[in-house]
Amino acid sequence: MSRLAEIILIAAAASAAMAEPNIVSPVFEPGKEVRLNIGKEVGEILVYVPADYNDDCNWPAIFYYHGQGGQLSTKWLQTATGGKGFIIVSLEFVPTTSEKMNQLQYRTYAEREIKNIAFARHFLQGRLKIDPKMTVLAGVSRGGWLVADIFGFRPQLAAAVVITCAGNHNWLPDEPMSLAGKYVYIGAGEIDQNLGPAKKAAAYFGNRKADVTFEIYAGLGHEINPKSPIMQKWFSDLRGNLSRMAIKK
Prior knowledge:
The protein is α/β, with parallel strands linked by helices. It has one domain (3-248): Alpha/Beta hydrolase fold, catalytic domain (Rossmann fold), CATH 3.40.50.1820. 37% of the residues lie in helices and 21% in strands. The chain has helices spanning 3-19, 75-81, 103-125, 142-153, 195-207, 229-248, and strands spanning 33-37, 44-48, 59-65, 87-91, 130-140, 160-164, 183-189, 211-217. A hairpin with a 6-residue loop joins strand 1 (33-37) and strand 2. The longest helix has 23 residues, at 103-125. The chain is globular.
């Protein structure tokens, strides 16, 4: 190989590495987390591979947003799922210039988050056995409001949603799509300031024909109880329901 060809090859490899940092060969192992950067728009994500993972079947993936000021983490979802049955992906928020947005601005912002979820899912599909039809959205506090809204106006994106310590804005068309066949879990602390909005969100999604499970965490404020038997049973049942749906399709 000539010196010029070597230089061109090195430059091309460097360019690819800058465009997709840390993506070349992530090692995914059952029961382990992997932190990686999947590009400028999405940035860092944290991926947990369930302890019972194998390549013999397709798996559901939970795409999770933490609360305001939080950090990437899959810990409480690992507890809630028993560390099995679900690939868990923790995402950062798209940067915004203002926390106060009108309906149009918020919808535009949410569309960018939807794009990032789709990008992360597509990236992981090339490396793990993920079934996009078994996508679950999850969030707490700010993240809970976000996934509730995304699920409300783009239900095609996910089969289920987990909304904790949050409600929804209900900024939707006059005739929103039915959510029949979709699964919704909503939980909030007994003294959480968002308990009222959480109750309203449960009624809202129920009116849209979703299968809704609503839980109040006794004695808690703005926090989650991932050891709740109700939540853990919901995830266990959801895994079975999603698997049966995938077989039918």
